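Please, why this fold?
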Amino acid sequence: MSLAMPSWCFRLSTLLAMIALCASSPSPVRDFPTAASLGSWANELLHYLRVASLSIALYDYLATLPAEFRLYASQPSFLRMSNACILFIAVRYVSVVCLVASSWGFFGTGFSPKVCQRYYLVTPATKLLAVLISQIIISIRTYAISRKSPWVFWTLCALFIACLLPELVGTVYKKIPVQDMYQNCTSGNIVRMSWLHYLAAVVFDVVTTGISTTYLLINSPTLSPMSGLSRLLLKEGMSYFFVLTLVNLANLYVFRTSSISTQSCAAGFGEAMTMIMSEHIILNLHDWRVIQASTQQPSERHEMDRISGVQRAPSYLRPTVVSGARGAGPRAVIPDSRNRNVLGGRPSRNSMDDPTRAKRSSRRLDPPLEIRVQIHEAVKIDYESDYEPSVFDIGAPPAPIDLPDEDEEPAIFESIAL
C-alpha cells in the first residue's frame, strides 16, 4: 500500500502561503495583542490554518492505520514490542495529544484565567517531547546508515545535547497564557525567544541529513546500482529534510516577526508535519521489509546457482550432519528418496509410520544411505560482503558467515536493537 499523500506539494505550498499571510498581517499592539485585534479576515485565516493542519494530520492518521496494524501484527507480543514500534507509538500519539490539546485550547471557550494558567503549557511541553522523539528516530537511522561509525555516534550525541538547550529555552522560557475575547487558551512568548527552538531543529536536520546522505552516496558510487533499501533511505531522508526544514524556516520567520496569536497557529502546522514525516520513516521501512520477505529473493549463492543451471535438492533430501562413533568423526546422513513423496515431501505408502500397514507387510524398508566424512582441517573463508546496514540495527556489524539457506529470510532489515 502506498503511503504517499495526494496533491502533497499543492497542500504544502498552500499552507506555507497561509503562514506567510499570517506573519505579514498588521497588528496595532505589539506587546500583547489579541486575535480580535488582527481584524476579521486575519482571524478567519488563523482558524483556516488550524483546520487545514488538523485535516492533513487526520487524513494521514486514517491513511496509515492499515500500515500501523501491520506493524503491530509483526510484533512477537504486546509486552515484547521492538524499539521501532515503541518509538512509532511514542511519536505518533504524543503528537496526537499535542494537536488535540492545541486545538482544544484555541477553539475552546470559557477558560477562566486560573484554568488557563495551568493548561497553556500542555501544548509546548508535548510539542517539545514529540520533536525530541523524532530526533531520536533520525539519530538512530543516521547512525545505522553510517555502519555504526564511532565518530558519527559521538557527533550525534553532542549534536542532540547541543540542540536540546535552545529547544528548551524556546519552548518554555517566558511563556505566557494568551486569551482572546472568547476566553480561549493558547500560549505566547513576549520576549521572542521561541524562534531558537526552530533554529536548533533546522541545524539538527541539516547535520543528520548531510551525514546519512554522504554515507549513502559513498556506499553507492553511482545512483543506478543503488539497492532498493538505499534508494528508499535516500528518498525518505530527502523528503524528511526538505519538508521539515521548510516548515521550521517558515516558523522561525513567524516567531521572529509576528504577533503572539499568530505564533500558536503557525506552530500547529509544524506539529502535524513532525508527526507525519517521523512515522512515515518507520512505516515505509517496515512495509519494505514485508515486501522483500514476501518476494523471497534468493541470496547471492542461489542466484549464481540459478544462472549456472544448478538445481538445489529439496530440503528433505539434503544431508544432515550428525556426530559419528568415537574416533570416526562426523557423518552426513542422506534420506532415502524412495521413502518420500517427491512433490509433497510426505512419506510414501511403504512408510512404517502406518502401524496397520506395517503388520500386513513383512518386507523391511531399505536403511538410509550413509556417507562418512572425515574432517582433517578446518578452513575459514573470508569474502567481500555487500552488507547494507539496517536503518534500525544498532548492534555490531555481522561477521562473515555462510550464506543463508534458501528458506531463510534475507537479513537486510531488522527492527531497532539498541
Q: What stands out?
A: The first strand starts at residue 175 and ends at 178. The radius of gyration is 30 Å. Strands lie at 175-178, 186-189, 320-322, 331-334, 369-372.
